[in-house]
Amino acid sequence: MPTAIIADDERLMRDQLRMRLGQVWPELEIIGEAKNGDEAIDLVDELDPDFTFLDIRMPGKTGMEAASVIGNKSIIVFVTAYDAYAVEAFERGAIDYVLKPPEQERLQITVDRLKARFNKPAAAAATDVNASVTAMLAQLTEKIAAPKPAHLQWIQASIGQDLRMIPVEEILFFRSDEKYTCVQTEKYEALIRKPVRDLAEELDPALFWQIHRATLVNVNAIEGVTRDIRGRHLVMIKGRPDKLEVSRSFLHLFKQM
């Protein structure tokens, strides 16, 4: 039975990749998961997987830095959202890749490649991070190392078993409960595990206002503010029945309204 580990700092992405791999390669056993490159290196040493699925950009050691340490201990498969330049380089190199979010048809191509390698003698199947591949990784590292956008541009959120990539400008509001944060758009509701306090630090404060410890609202979605019979201030959302409570700490945002 072929074995693999998955390394990605996003739990939803790990779950999505595990599910998709189970659909296209049910014989593959996922024997471990890591949240960063350092954990991936430790798991490879501990579990000796045939394949290692590495997210390119993770906290601590990146996927590429982890790949240079793992070397030929496991066949490397990069998981990347950077198809604008990464795909071309991977096509020329000795390393396979999966695009985010993993689509079944494209993942099947990668799985077919991996099966072909797995059926070869071990020495021929091992992915050796040799001089040419190292040069390719160095080139990609330089491009990917560019600073991240100052604010989140999209949100990865789940709807049932599906993962959606939602541009932040399409989101009307975020509202948290004890376990999940609801991501509300005009067309659907999705869920993430990231709390509002973390989102407030990562989203553009000119676009999303925090109006409650559990609520962020897109300023472009605000129709107005009203009061209920208890004297609470409520934000009305354009085209929707939702009314979002404003806590006293954030009333100053609406002093001009």
Descriptive report:
This protein has helices at residues 11-24, 37-47, 63-70, 86-92, 104-118, 122-125, 131-144, 196-202, and strands at 3-7, 29-34, 51-55, 75-80, 96-99, 154-159, 162-167, 171-176, 181-185, 189-192, 208-212, 215-218, 222-227, 233-237, 243-246. It is of the alpha/beta class. It folds into 2 domains: 3-144, 3-Layer(aba) Sandwich (Rossmann fold); 154-254, Beta Barrel (OB fold (Dihydrolipoamide Acetyltransferase, E2P)), CATH 2.40.50.1020. Helix 1 packs across helix 5 and helix 2 runs parallel beside helix 3 (63-70). It starts with a strand and ends in an 11-residue tail after the last strand. The relative contact order is 0.10. Residues 122-130 have low confidence and may be disordered.
Shape designation: elongated
Q: In CATH terms, what is the fold-level topology of the largest domain?
A: Rossmann fold
User: From the 3D coordinates, which CATH architecture of the largest domain would you assign?
Assistant: 3-Layer(aba) Sandwich
Q: How many β-strand stretches? A: 15
Tell me the Rg in angstroms: 22 Å
Intertermini distance: 64 Å
Highest-level CATH class of the largest domain: Alpha Beta
Please trace the helix and strand order, writing H or E for each element.
EHEHEHEHEHHHEEEEEHEEEEE
Domain count: the total is 2
Question: Topology of this protein?
Answer:
Blueprint: E1 3-7, H1 11-24, E2 29-34, H2 37-47, E3 51-55, H3 63-70, E4 75-80, H4 86-92, E5 96-99, H5 104-118, H6 122-125, H7 131-144, E6 154-159, E7 162-167, E8 171-176, E9 181-185, E10 189-192, H8 196-202, E11 208-212, E12 215-218, E13 222-227, E14 233-237, E15 243-246
Parallel strand pairs: 1-2, 1-3, 3-4, 4-5
Antiparallel strand pairs: 6-7, 8-9, 8-12, 9-10, 11-12, 13-14, 14-15
